Amino acid sequence: MNAHRSPFLVTVVALIPTLGVFQPFVFGNLQAQETKGTQIEVRLIPKKKSIKVGEVLEVRVEIWNVGSKPLFIEKDIYTPCGQPAPLSLRLELGPPIKPLFGLGVGCAADCLYNAKDSFARRLVYRWTVLPAGDFYGTVISMHLESFQQLNTPGRWRLGGTYKSIGNLSSSLCWDTAPIPDNEEQIKGLPYEAWQGKVDTNTVWIEVLRGGNSATVKKSP
Known about the structure:
The protein is mainly beta and 220 residues long. The chain has helices spanning 7-13, 119-126, 182-187, and strands spanning 26-29, 40-46, 50-52, 57-65, 71-74, 87-92, 112-113, 127-130, 134-142, 154-164, 174-175, 196-199, 203-208. Helices cover 10% and strands 32% of the residues.
């Protein structure tokens, strides 16, 4: 999925000399209406609402700025492995889950800052600017190893929670060369980071038994 940025975003990013490539993340503007008292909306859009047992569930995630001011948000939306990301997902309200043996997932990830990593480089490593009325999104994959519900036929309600403490100076990277005036440089930025906690929309997902899905009677 190719990324595209609005002219407004390009102007903002020009304030920061170092910028990474955001693929496979995307930006867009669909004239979102501002919601009173709300800054962020998170929308889940499954590629398919019916999958067979054991299949991967692909979901498009869009982070919308429905406020009136640009915000910094975290670049990583969802990571099943590595440093914690803002979005957590869940499948609930389905039939009882049978125990699955021999399945599991494990991984590790780390990062390191050194004297060559400027303030701007550190900032864009984790954060991006989301203009008012725009969205930032990607497609994520939900695997059986992390979601055992995908191995149990039935209807499941997909939802999630998106949260951030909005601390632009925080990082899980090991810092061998801290920037002395880091807090002062953050105060000089034109925008603040979003902080808070919001629930996503919910969508019903049907997990079908193996075989020809056309022969399986679907729930209303």
